[in-house]
Amino acid sequence: MISKETFDKDKANFKGTYRPLLKEIDNPTLLQIDELHGIAGALSGKNQNIHNNILLLLASIGTIITIIFFIYFEWDISAFIIPCVLLMFILIGIHLVSNKLNYHDKYLEYRVLAESLRLQFFLSYAGAQEKVIDILPWFIEHGVPLVKEVLGTLDFTELPQKREIRDNWIIHQKKYHEGALQKSKKKMRTQKIVTYASITVTIATYIIALIFEYLIPASTFNLNGDIIHLGIKLAMAGMSAFTLFLGSYYGKMSLSEKIDDHERMVELYGIIEDRIRTEGETDEILSYAAREFLIENSTWYAYQSKNKPDLVV
């Protein structure tokens, strides 16, 4: 768990920029929330990039170790055990540093915080009396105490007058999730193509091995049997290593869960948009939207929290 002290330290050291929730904000309460949201979101994005790079690095190094060890084992080249051991220590070092610096936890918890602040911003902008801190799901309140601690520092003494939020929040978020849904589907298609190609090549390699072992001897084509065997073994080892890479990298992206998540959010915002169009921006609708949004935020955190970097060997 990330403490508020850690967040305050990261916030104080933050030197970047962020996109405000609205172009013009003239209320002190909203300005405070917008700043916290922007910094939390930017810090989450920064740690997400580092986390993704670590996943790629761990998967790549683990794959390289597998290939080098196969060469060492197959050709009995003792010198190859040295890079294996060195890469193993590098792998362990990256994993330990990643866990110590909490890149994954910061990515998730700062994002949950940012989304909770986004919700509070638009509830306050709409003049709603509902406070996010009072309706946090127990899962977030217990699992990410940072959210409640930061929300507890907000000053609501100067709330703005009631304003419409349908365009700035509901429709805007619906469009965001529609775009994110298409991006996730594109990544899923790429993953499936790569996975199916890997499976096809692996099966083809085994079939070729079967042919040359039992059906058509290599001597039939005046080929060196040892070279054929070595080529087949290298191909098998390479595909096994590549499969390891796919599982350890793409498997951590939770693309199917992301797609389901975005589809639910598009549908949810569509329902809220329709209700606002027919009933107006009532406190009941805003409360419903807020609670459902927090539940979805909890769901996102739940499946993403399983994607911590693992040692891949």
For the residues shown, what is the average pLDDT? 88
Low-pLDDT runs? none
The total count of strands amounts to: 0
Shape designation: elongated
Largest sheet, in brief, is: none
Query: What separation lies between the terminal Cα atoms?
Result: 28 Å
Would you list the SSEs in sequence order as H and E? HHHHHHHHHH
Number of domains: 1
Describe the structure in your own words:
The chain crosses the membrane at residues 54-73, 79-97, 193-215, 227-250. This is DUF4231 domain-containing protein. Keywords: Membrane, Transmembrane, Transmembrane helix. The chain has 313 residues and is mainly alpha-helical. It has one domain (4-304). The chain has helices spanning 4-13, 28-75, 81-101, 103-125, 138-143, 145-151, 166-215, 225-249, 255-279, 283-304. It is elongated and about 85 Å long. The mean pLDDT is 88.
List the helices and strands and how they pair.
Layout: H1 4-13, H2 28-75, H3 81-101, H4 103-125, H5 138-143, H6 145-151, H7 166-215, H8 225-249, H9 255-279, H10 283-304
Helix pairs in contact: 2-3, 2-4, 2-8, 4-6, 4-10, 7-8, 7-9, 9-10
Defining traits:
elongated, mainly alpha, 10 helices, 313 residues
Short description:
This protein is mainly α. The chain has helices spanning 4-13, 28-75, 81-101, 103-125, 138-143, 145-151, 166-215, 225-249, 255-279, 283-304. It starts with a helix and ends in a 9-residue tail after the last helix.
